[in-house]
Request: fold
Amino acid sequence: MTGARRSALVGGAVVVLLAAVLVGVTVGPAGLTARGVLLDLLDAVPGVDVDSGLTAQQHAILWQIRLPRVVLGAVVGATLAIAGAAYQGVFRNPLADPFLLGVSSGAGLGATAAIVSGLALGSFGIPVAAFAGGVLAVTATYLLGRGVGGVRSEVVIILAGVAVAAFANAAQTFLQQRHDETLRQVYNWLLGRLSTDGWTQVLVVLPYVVVAAAVICLHRRTLDVMAVGDTEAASLGVHPERVRLTLVAAATLGTAAVVSVSGLIGFVGIVVPHAIRLVVGPGHRLLLPLSLLLGAAFLVFADVLARTVTAPAELPIGVVTAAIGAPFFLVVLRRGRAT
Reply:
């Protein structure tokens, strides 16, 4: 693929993301217009003074409600998509996702424990518990996989993830049955949501996301080498186990961070990278940046649907992504069978 085409694809993805952000901040009952929003954003640039025409109430809605939510959705979507691409490259499985090694189950257990124990009081109780649960689950998965299978196969690590996820799900179910008065609050978190308290959630997760995305992108060429297998990659000077550990740690860090503030939002890490791979091929030099940009756009658009389909009520965003992801896989499976 030529450099011009790669630049055009990345540029197109940037345009799609900007369009998603504009739709996300304008759609809703506040009467915000695209022109007013763009002018108000321009007015925030140092040295620029323009009249956006927005009222003081509309200005507050834009900067304290709409924009933080849209930016959070973009950050969560970008992280889940690039983490999914990294997992798929590391494990050489196009259907792997960020929740493969137990992040979702561990985060769900942590959040449930915080809710039923009363530690959910305040804005950071649940996110901290969910983050810790997700990281601990993946750590347990990796240690168990290494202890059983050594460095011989990534399949052992995946199977260890299944075992850890099953244990975490069982513990979570036990807590829910013992404290059924908290079921609604637990399920509200598990089904995913992008409710924000100003910019707090964005600022909390952003450092983790930046570090994770940077580490993954720096290994884009190494992921292409690892696609040929561990033995061949080692002969080319790559240390497969070291690379696998680094990328799993980075993807887990980013995933646990965003899941801690958004709840469990499935399918993004599978649908977006897989769809991009069908169009541009498996090369990670282009797959990773496109996953980052289009993953952000995908979740912003999904959040718009969640806010508008049953307005004034709001659907859990995890329901929306599942409704999109399930038909996608039916199409993929049908196409694979046809070929």
Remarks:
- The domain at 3-338 is CATH 1.10.3470.10 (ABC transporter involved in vitamin B12 uptake, BtuC).
- The chain has a mean pLDDT of 88.
- The chain has one domain: 3-338.
